[in-house]
């Protein structure tokens, strides 16, 4: 049996018989079905299918095409690269052309030949793949937007690859990580790598604004909506229209605004405070928090339904202390950057400073390290930055990773030899077999390590 994963194909069709026929005909794809607009949008958000076939006449009023057109617009607003193939009624050329005008990929009038539809679907996937590949190549030509991010940690490098992949979709991204780990840096990277990069990136910190002002900050207000509302003012959501909105510290969003944000995410329209007009907004949401949202949900402080809307893609950013080798790497990079900014010529970190940086736990993560190095560059007398300039305690020697390869290897070998001898109760013949070395070699090793 082939283990290759089938590609998702969404079939939006309210007639169960036709739905079944299409599923059966296109079993080379992972067919997903939806019989109305709401469930189709759920499938789109969840699976991001490259190709969708949709009936224009959908419930509640299957005789009209209004739901179908609304769905078409919503699919293309959410995932503009999706290839939507519209199925119209007989002799319904006007609606077919209108659908194409709105961005549909192709249309078929019912009744249609399933084989023809199949060919069109295959071609749509092919075109989609070409366009994605093209976009990827273009991005390679425009240097990596993550190039400002310094890391060699495998976990964070994986995060970067995820960011690059999801950036080109319109999926909502939830960044989880301690304060100062680089959440805003990655949120900007999502924006810069997306097709929205020429539009605005707007960030709002939900924890930094008093609850009573947050609603007007987010949704804006009309002139006269409350005392002091001297003129109509758009909120951050509206300001970010067509671009990316970063909701930082989303875990601190008060309950009433959680409900309001959820409504916005479902309907993608806002009403300014004191306003009556619904304003459609097309914005990509990236949110971030250092809090454990699942724990907040259990405590009843965060809405579960909102969590699932926001957590389409969840990215966990490791704290600096868990990233291997990153503290020293970043410290060197920051020295270069701040020395250039302060016009201090070339500056270097002395060995004792590097050891201190490696040994410290950095509870404030990269931001703390950045501030610390900036201060040290200003404070250092010569062009060498010492541990004292950095203001960290002397590194306790056993906390520092030994960088001597021979010593590390010796220690590891000694540990393994001792373990092997212990396991076979000191029998050298058996221990040599266990270790896969000859008896004389084992005697040599035991001699070297002073083992009897
Ligand atoms: N890997 C990295 N390479 C280079 N600079 C970094 C890296 N990570 C973070 N920074 C820098 O560290 C500082 C803090 O990062 P950022 O503001 O993105 O963190 P944050 O997680 O959003 O913090 P908070 O939760 O407190 O808002 C910024 O100046 C950012 O440019």
UniProtKB/TrEMBL annotation:
Keywords for this entry? ATP-binding, Nucleotide-binding, Phosphoprotein, Transcription, Transcription regulation
**What are the 4-aspartylphosphate sites (modified residues) in this protein?**
55
Give residue ranges for domain Response regulatory.
Answer: 8-125
Source species:
Chitinimonas taiwanensis DSM 18899
What's the source species' lineage?
Bacteria, Pseudomonadati, Pseudomonadota, Betaproteobacteria, Neisseriales
Which Pfam families would you find in this protein's record?
Answer: AAA_lid_14 (PF25601), HTH_8 (PF02954), Response_reg (PF00072), Sigma54_activat (PF00158)
Q: Which GO terms describe its biological process?
A: phosphorelay signal transduction system; regulation of DNA-templated transcription
Q: What is this protein called?
A: Two-component system, NtrC family, response regulator
User: Would you indicate the residue range of the signal peptide?
Assistant: none
**Gene Ontology molecular function, alphabetical:** ATP binding; sequence-specific DNA binding
User: Domain Sigma-54 factor interaction spans what residues?
Assistant: 149-378
């Amino acid at each position: 049996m082939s283990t290759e994963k089938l590609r998702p194909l969404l079939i939006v069709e309210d007639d169960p018989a036709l739905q079944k026929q299409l599923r059966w005909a296109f079993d080379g794809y992972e067919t997903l079905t939806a019989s109305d607009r709401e469930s189709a949008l759920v499938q789109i958000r969840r699976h991001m299918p490259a190709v969708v076939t949709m009936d224009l006449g959908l419930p509640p009023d299957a005789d009209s095409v209004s739901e179908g057109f609304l769905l078409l617009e919503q699919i293309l607003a959410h995932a503009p690269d999706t290839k939507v193939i519209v199925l119209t009624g007989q002799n319904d050329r006007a609606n077919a052309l209108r659908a194409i005008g709105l961005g549909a990929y192709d249309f078929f009038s019912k009744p249609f030949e399933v084989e023809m539809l199949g060919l069109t679907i295959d071609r749509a996937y092919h075109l989609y793949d070409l366009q994605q590949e093209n976009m990827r190549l273009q991005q390679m030509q425009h240097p990596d937007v993550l190039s400002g991010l310094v890391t060699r940690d495998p976990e964070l490098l994986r995060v970067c690859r995820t960011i690059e992949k999801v950036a080109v979709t319109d999926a909502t991204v939830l960044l989880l990580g301690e304060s100062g780990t680089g959440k805003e840096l990655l949120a900007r990277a999502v924006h810069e790598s997306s097709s929205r990069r020429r539009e605005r990136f707007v960030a709002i910190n939900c924890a930094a604004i008093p609850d009573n002002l947050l609603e007007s900050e987010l949704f804006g207000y009309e002139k006269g909506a409350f005392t002091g509302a001297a003129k109509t003012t758009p909120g951050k959501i509206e300001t970010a229209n067509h671009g990316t909105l970063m909701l930082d510290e989303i875990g601190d969003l008060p309950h009433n605004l959680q409900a309001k944000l959820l409504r916005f995410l479902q309907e993608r329209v806002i009403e300014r405070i004191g306003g009556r007009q619904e304003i459609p907004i097309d914005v990509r949401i990236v949110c971030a928090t250092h809090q454990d949202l699942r724990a907040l949900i259990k405590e009843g402080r965060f809405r579960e339904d909102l969590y699932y809307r926001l957590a389409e893609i969840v990215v966990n950013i490791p704290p600096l202390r868990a990233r291997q080798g990153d503290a020293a790497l970043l410290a060197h990079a920051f020295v270069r950057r701040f020395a250039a900014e302060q016009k201090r010529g070339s500056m270097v970190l002395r060995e004792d400073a590097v050891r201190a940086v490696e040994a410290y736990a950095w509870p404030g993560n990269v931001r703390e390290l950045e501030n610390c190095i900036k201060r040290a560059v200003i404070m250092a007398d010569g062009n060498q930055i010492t541990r004292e300039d950095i203001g960290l305690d002397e590194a306790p020697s056993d906390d520092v990773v030994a960088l001597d390869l021979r010593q590390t290897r010796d220690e590891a070998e000694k540990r393994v030899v001792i373990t092997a001898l212990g396991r076979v109760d000191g029998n050298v013949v058996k221990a040599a077999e266990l270790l896969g070395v000859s008896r004389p070699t084992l005697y040599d090793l035991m001699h070297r390590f002073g083992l009897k």
